[in-house]
Design a protein that fits this description.
- The chain is 30% helix and 24% strand.
- By secondary structure, the chain is of the alpha+beta class.
- A three-stranded antiparallel β-sheet has the order 1-2-3.
- Strand 2 (31-36) and strand 3 (44-48) form a beta hairpin.
- The model is unreliable at 1-5 (pLDDT under 50).
Length: 71
């Protein structure tokens, strides 16, 4: 439960700083979640396995979830 609380506190801090984009990499589930600031909140886009990760801030940056997790 502490992990959930800590993540919630960190997410609140990120929201207050108006960070435009952040990624959550979960190697246990083999997913990357991209969170984009839109109108004061962070909708999440979840990418799995061989999906190409999309970043609106860095459109030239292209790689898959597997490539991210293998480094």
């Amino acid at each position: 439960m502490l992990g959930v609380y800590k993540f919630s506190v960190e997410r609140d801090y990120i929201q207050k700083t108006c960070l435009r984009e952040y990624w959550i990499v979960d190697p246990l589930k083999n997913i990357v979640t991209v969170c984009l600031l839109e109108k004061g909140s962070y909708p999440q886009i979840v990418f799995i396995e061989n999906q190409q990760i999309i970043s609106t801030l860095f459109p030239a940056l292209t790689f898959t979830v597997q490539q991210t997790l293998s480094t």
